[in-house]
Amino acid sequence: MNEHSVLTDDAIRRALTPSASVRAPMDLGASIRAAIDTTRQQRPSVASRLLAPAARPVRILALAALVALLAIVGLLLAIGRQHPTPLNLALDAPMFRGGPDRTNVVLGPGPSGRPTILWDQAVGGPINNNMPAIVGGVVYVADGSGGVSVFRAADGNPGWSEMLTSSVNASPAVADGLVIVAEADGTIVALDQATGTNRWTAHTAGPVRSSPAIADGVVYLGDMNGFLYAFDLATGSERWRPFLAGSDITRSPAVAGGLVYVGAGGGLLSAVDVGTGAQAWQASLGPGEIPTPSVRDGLVMAASGADDPAAQHAVFAVDAKTGEKLGSWPSPSGQDLYVGAFDKGLVLVESQDDNVYALNVSADGRTLTERWHFETGGPVGSSTAIAAGVAYIAGGDRTVYAVKEATGDLLWMVEVTGQPGAIAVVGDRVYLATDLGRVIAIGNTP
Amino acid sequence: MLNVARSSAVSGIGDPELLAMAADGNADAFDALLSGRLDRLYRMAFSITRSEADARDATQTACVQAWRELPRLRDRSRLDPWLSQILINSCRMLLRGRRRGSVRELSMDDPDRPLPGQGPFVAAASDQFGEADAIRAAFERLDPSTRTLLALHYVEGQPLAEIARSMGQPVGTIKWRLSNARRALEHALKAEQR
Asked: Percent of chain A at pLDDT above 90?
């Protein structure tokens, strides 16, 4: 190539455009036909439902009783333990990062010893950084092809599945018998938890990558036009006029203490009243996007500078009531940071520099110091989880790691098919989905 | 069978009816639906993967997935964007799988490399210095997401808003990523010339 030539749009177009002679091979149609002749279509038939309609009421009652019993036992166990008390005492993982506060600190207790992959199921599209929802022994996933699928948590057996009309780049959320899924084109659908039947549909003004948060019968999510929405969980109607966050909302909101916290482009972190949609405060954390924050003990932990190479990347502790910036911790490598699981006095921070950092957080939020860091084999972009003193890491090297929360010492690691997304710990198992469209359960073999 | 005249059972039937029949399990109707679309899908796959074998695999995988999922497609007026979305995912997953194995980086001295003007691309009389070949080789060095973005924009001619919608990202982010993708192509081009 002439060293003085310039890479123009036209040069790229000309170089990459196939010639008119490029056509599908003559036998490709026959190959496809042969393949589809042996491929069963996935029908939303009654037979494929996880719950037969006749047995549904009994099954739901039994599940509810079991969940209530387990929740009580879990509560008693949690009260008795010396380890910092987890915020999310439920034994389910109903939405992205465990619950609306996005702390992803759960009871677990997670696997022990040398766990392995218990089941590994394929879905129709990639699942990037997002998390399955696990409720009542059922795993719910939404994938990049627009498929919503359910699997029995015990053994991975598939239940109902539905195909939406747009891709999905967000985690599903499950509450009150509904599965809420945000399609990339801004269509929000509520599917019946038991059958997959569409219960309501709502729309946002812009595309959506934001995983819904559900709290007290309201669904919260943001769109890329910069609006934060509150939809009634039962009907899909808007609770209040959408709040304009100031720039693109590409990540998920957190809900705690009567406020919705949402990050946006331009480094804006906003707190909005759950009842009225009125802005309580807005803080500027510098250029770049603010990934999903995490809230507990009166502190909002948020990272700054995402997706902007020129920005200064840091983690901030912000007063949850006033928006005052308290302490901060700069990225040691200058690479993107994301706030992950947030336990009492400790927050996990994922980084594009391949590490997960555990930061000590003082009670007043003014001091953030590194306690340990754990290096994986690639950039870490998916959320961590904490359960019973163990931190779970979705490594950038297609590996799930379990390390001691206190020290970062490795307990076990399991390689998976594809880049793992956010980790869910429910009972004695870890559940995750990958960018190669796999849904995986890790645990101890019976 | 595809790429031949529609079977008598489905000849003369419009796309909406064919779609309903295909969703009901009629493979002939699905053949008929694909027959007018297969070249476009294959060319799109080829522009992303830059390999005839990979384009074939990605197209077949996408079509089989579309067949499997068709009964669950809610908005049947969006068949074509839905097919494109499945194909793009299929290409990206295939390329990512390839990257797990060996990554073959072509050099200008590669004996298997097509000579300038050869190969399944638009020949340009002005490409006297092998510029197009160098760009194509540089393109092959890029990661699957970057390749997809460049192919959708420069080859498919999709507007930024449409790419943003299908990739679930804001237009501003797509603009920024496209700018990065172009810069990555320039870097790869320089590496290719070393």
From this structure: 66
**In what order do the strands lie in the sheet containing A254-256?**
A254-256, A259-263, A268-273, A279-284
Please state the ipTM of this predicted complex. 0.79
* DSSP, res A97: G
The number of beta carbons lying within 10 Å of the beta carbon of residue A344 is 15
C-alpha distances (whole Å) from B116 to each of A107, A144, A433, B130 are 63, 38, 44, 6
Of A11, A164, A184, the CB nearest to B135: A11
Residues 148-187 of B with CB under 8 A from A: 150-151, 154-155, 164-173, 176, 182, 185-186
Q: Flag if B129 and A125 touch (Cβ within 8 Å).
A: no
**A243-264 mean pLDDT:** 93
Q: Is the dihedral of CA A143, A145, A147, A151 positive or negative?
A: negative
Amino acid at A6: V
Nearest one of B63, B125, B187, B132 to A36, comparing CA atoms: B63
Instruction: Give the residue-averaged pLDDT of B99-122.
Output: 41
Element (H, E) at A255: strand A254-256
Side chain identity at residue B74, one-letter code: R
Distance CA B134, CA B140 (A): 10
Euclidean distance between CA atoms A75 and A113, whole angstroms? 25
Query: For an interface test with B, which of A1, A43, A221 has the most B Cβ atoms less than 10 Å from its Cβ?
Result: A1
pTM of the predicted model, to two decimals?
A: 0.64
- Using one digit for the tens of pLDDT, what is the confidence trace for B88-103? 878 877 776 665 433 3
Average pLDDT for chain A: 88
Confidence of residue A140 (pLDDT cuts 50, 70, 90): very high
Of B38, B65, B78, the CB nearest to A124: B65
Residues of chain A contacting B65 with CB distance shorter than 8 Å: 124, 145
Q: Give yes or no for a contact between A62 and A55, defined as CB atoms under 8 angstroms apart.
A: no
* Mean pLDDT value of segment A414-433: 95
Task: Indicate if the alpha-carbon torsion angle A407, A411, A415, A418 is positive or negative.
Answer: negative
Comparing C-alpha atoms, which of A349, A353, A330, A326 is closest to residue A339? Answer: A349
Report CA dihedral (A96, A102, A108, A113) to the nearest 10 degrees: 80
Q: Going by DSSP bridges, is the β-strand pair A438-443/A429-433 parallel, antiparallel, or unpaired?
A: antiparallel
Cβ(A194)–Cβ(A174) below 8 Å: no
Confidence of residue A25 (pLDDT cuts 50, 70, 90): very high
* Contact at CB, B43 and A28, closer than 8 angstroms: no
Which of A29, A44, A209 lies closest to B168 in CB terms?
A209
In angstroms, the separation between the Cα of residue B185 and the nearest Cα of chain A is 9
| Partner A contacted by B80 (CB < 8 A) | no
